[in-house]
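Okay, is this right?
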Amino acid sequence: MSLATLSPGRTWGFYLGGNWITDRDSEPVLSPFDQSVIAAVPNATPADLERAITAAVSAFELTRKMSSYERQQILRKISAAITARREELAQTMSREAGKPIKAARVEVDRAAFTFDLAAEESTRLTGEWLPLDQQPASRGRYGILRRFAIGPIAAITPFNFPLNLVAHKVAPAIACGCTVVLKPAPQTPFSALLLAELIHRAGWPEGALSILPMSNETAAPLITDDRLKLLSFTGSGAVGWKLKQQAGKKRVVLELGGNAGVIIHSDADLAYAAARCIVGGFSYQGQSCISVQRIFVHRAVFQQFVEVLVAGVNQLSTGDPADERTDVGPLIRLSDAERVESWINEAVASGARVLTGGRRRGSLIEPTVLVNTSRDMRVSCMEVFAPLVLCEPYDDFADAVRRVNDSQFGLQAGVFTRDAQLIDYAYQELQVGGVIAGDVPTWRLDNMPYGGWKDSGLGREGVRYSIEEMTERKLLVMAT
């Protein structure tokens, strides 16, 4: 494959256990920016999925016995290949996801880093030695505890990070010797398929990876088939929790939605906090589950902060994601832009005030700042997934923490203050999977444990922590 194949008249193949399949009914993939056809991708059939699962089960007998050195070499080759084809991957992602090209390049770099991390972790699957001679009857006994690959894995990934979130499923699996059958988002299959090509060329065994665009109905065995030992899903909460109910005995890892809150206290560097909130709230059009959505600012500095924030938001460039100057591109679907427009209008009708933005042009939503909102407005209590933030004042830090917690979600939160006691209080009391002190909740490094409380998910991602989810502990007791 090459970038030249990404054209309206071209049908890509999907990757099934080492082979490229093209002779299936295909569907066009549309540009989020102008709804033009980018290319077409064939849909896998139920028979294709059965072949992929069977191949994953068979290949697991090989991958689970591979040495850590072999897995590390493959992972390093994949990372290097991603770097070598950086621009091709970035351009592909920008076209299919509507991600501004400069942000797409950052994601490609992150994906290469994710595979580098996995290469390192592949040789760190350490165990534990246990003394078991604590009683006369256990004299001379000791234990060895190790982690073993759990088996074939089912993975489902979303549109918003079509390369790096695929990497977060596949790279840890290669590191520990698991095989993968993956369903990419229907809006953004091409980045994942390009990655499959690089993994194939790096020498990962045939059958050990399949990437199949397919309907939700066709994909049902990913959730229900007991031959797949883990379901790793990143997507909406409504879908994720439903899949967990259907998964039976299968282990499930869910990385779901958010409604990320930021607290900005009176002692914070307001210019820095505002700049970071702009990055956190408007990068990739706010289409991230840790995108800044709710900003709570100490009343003593509220007006000053809002003025700095709005001035910075007004400097953002909105438009064609292929333009090097663009900061904010289109939402993934026209219907999403229409939804956000209706939520803004609904909030304004209920008393909210738009300080900047608020208008829609096709699938583009202008970067928007709202004030005078209430917790029952959908822009406040639901995940907006758009370039929109709301700002509200608070008088008491504990009340700000309570208001961040007043959400069904709990993924990450940001706190800007120089007061160590307030940081500790926030860490103790915020009901989230991660507290980012001195920065926005949108900050993430790919090796940190990442996941949420409440409706935001179950389990943790991040390469090392994904490996823990993908492995089982096994004890050996030695009687000497």
User: Anything to note?
Assistant: The chain has two domains: 3-256+457-477, 260-445. The first strand starts at residue 14 and ends at 16. The mean pLDDT is 96. The chain is about 40% helix and 20% strand.
